[in-house]
Amino acid sequence: MNNFQYQVEQFADLRILRYQIPNFSELPLQKKQYIYYLSEAALSGRDIIWDQNNAKNLWLRSCLDSLYGVINSNDKGFEKFETYYKRVLFSNGFHHHYSTEKIKPDFTEAQLKGWIQALTIDEIRQLGEKSGEGLLGALIELMFDNLYMAKRVCQDEDKDLIVHSANNFYKELTQQEVEDFYKNKQDESDLQPVSHGLNSRLTKNNEQIEEEVWHVGGKYSKAIQKIVYWLRKAAEVCENKQQEQVINLLCDYYETGDLKTFDTYSIEWLKEQEGEIDFINGFIEVYGDPLGFKATWESLVNVTDQKETQKAAIISDNAQWFEDHSPVMVEHRRKEVKGVSMKVINAIMLGGDCYPASPLGINLPNAEWIREQHGSKSVSLQNISHAYEMASLSSGVIEEFAFDETEIALHKKYGAIADNLHTHLHECVGHGSGMLEVGVRTDALKAYGSVIEEARADLFGLYFMADEKMLELKLVSHMDVLKAQYNAYIRNGLMVQLARVNVGANIEQTHMRNRQLVACWVLEKGQENKVIERMNKAGKSYFVINDYAQLRNLFGQLLKEVQRIKSQGDYAAAKALVEHYGVKVDQAIHQEVKERYSQLNVAPYSGFINPKLSPIMDADGKLVDVELGYNESFLDQMQRYNRDYSFESNL
Ligand code: ZN
Question: For residue 482, what are the domain limits?
Fold first, then answer.
């Protein structure tokens, strides 16, 4: 396993990596069976995220599959077509997975025309078109018309966010209509409010607004039936009674679409802490909807990393201590922090919105009242972050953007430990901390809510990393770990992450906004005392931290303010903070970062190939073993998924 190849290929702005599952073969058969069935359920919902991202995505995927089959690999445009094809596959649709802007092909309309001529009329009809001309026209509009469905998630507050978003959550509605629709649904006095709109598409027919609910018998019925089929099989071989109950509740929810059942499921899922294997499967995160109502479908199957989890448990066990020592206003501290659990896991199967670009940490459930009354389950993905780390050590990014040898050495020594610890603190005590003032609505910050929330969790982690408590709890062996983390955070927030933004554009992505917000705020507030200093060496800019203690202080001050904004639902302050620090980019720095980064030839985004799980059946068709394979290429895997897990169609 020492020679495991973490990075498999690179194209456009993407790197394709692989992750390992340690000790899989030693698992007992029943656990392997459980994993296998959950993994099939994880792959079965793939079409849902494609359709949620855009109503034409599944159709486009079929077109690209067909065209790829007929284009000669000697054709001059073949490589350009293949790159576009792979980019679309990577993004689960024709909008960039991160920027959400439409992906532009490098081939020409004329080349496309030539390739379409190689399709038979039957193939064209199967794509829902009467003629090659018709197909060409439709594809040209989709691929080459800059105004047509330009952006999946519009974040520009000056525009109608719904009208200008190309996602498939709303049909023929304006932002005002959507906001009014859900405002009327909300009952302020309900102490256990369901997340209205989480699992439906909103449409307008003859002035009548209707919800198309995603459940068996409703929208996405075919894919959801498959998911339920595999979940039911998983329930037969799960590890304990609680898991069985959890899976049955999830199936009930998928069958009815009832959000109350989803909340019940979420609470029971939260309570299940005994098993070694766990999963996420459902409509979970709302980043794909600029208004934050609609959830994209995602799945993750995972196994606990016992050794790392013991370390993280120390943080969970001390959750109350963190809360009591948090620099936020006393009235915004939670009196009793409940059920904050922290698990370090190894991913086994990524599905839906978690694939191929994977999260590094997850904290669920999302419903605020459940978090307050029952706590949340928090995981960090050890083998995924390990794969990133292994792939990045050779990239040269640290050497380029760190100021001197000391900073580089510090990173090589403590970078991985520091980043793990920050993720643990962010996911566990960060998101789980704090409370709202009475009467404040959870959606009061509207489009700024998620940036503020991520900033809050990041700041909580940054603040406590510098606490002596870290030594006392034996979470670090040396306080230099915090220096490695502070260096990395400032380096990234002020410079490195800009490599992902087009020159001239604003920052739109939530996590990038929050990182720049935090980094720019402390840079500005610490300017007088030169807490962070901008240096110049051989014509290159660097940001160097002079005073770590003062920087910690500034993180604490900002945490207090960000918590106040959330607790009081101060929309105006959230807007001012995000717009002032998190959105606009310093043009000169941006240009410089782009130039320096491009010389390194490292693609800024990464995603993963899943391992292939092959069932071994006996003569009676009974599953007797599961074999793990790492040999599939990116395109092999994507095409296999296109073929074997294609249950929805928008032809
Ligand atoms: Zn977070």
Answer: 305-605
